Amino acid sequence: MFEKRVSGMFLGEVLRRAILSMIKDGRTELFKDESSGTNDVHSTCTIADDSPLYKQWGIDTSFLSIAHEDQSAGHHITRQALNRDLGVDAASSEDAQAIKLLVEAIGKRSARLSAVAIGAVIISTENLSLTAIDGRADEEKAVLEEDVVDIGVDGSLVEYYPGFEEYIREALREIESIGGKGEKRIRIGIAKDGSGVGAALIALVAGGREGGS
Question: For residue 113, which of 175, 64, 70 has the smallest C-alpha distance?
């Protein structure tokens, strides 16, 4: 369940299910006449019968990036994407704003959960405490290369999703054992094929143990 809340593979499906839940909930006005009467063409918002909203895995995570970045007047870009990608015709600016809020919440939760895993590894390795930075004079406490803790990450979210790394860093600063000073020493870099390299390293370590026993 952790991966399903974090991985870019699943975030589109999380959004789809959240939208469907809101559509079916009589207490919300998403894509309904009450909130869609002020759209550009003054027509009723409709959802196509074959909309990807009704199909499992129907929303690609790239849609979340589009909505998250949208700063256009009346969220025009998001409304276009709703029409083009999801078959939602004549959505209002209020509809688009609601989708944007959902998208931001899903993306931010994913990043903060990623920070939990990263923070746990950093704390357990005690790498942040293995430094002479605290022994330096205040004027000499700039982060040096020897103070840096490198974290390798892989995947489309951290590489392309707007603000994803900053959300991670924001959460790391809130962890008491890391804080603002510790976060500044963490360098997050893209490690291509991280899963394959990790598997190779595990196999190498396991092989070495077997050879020594």
Answer: 175
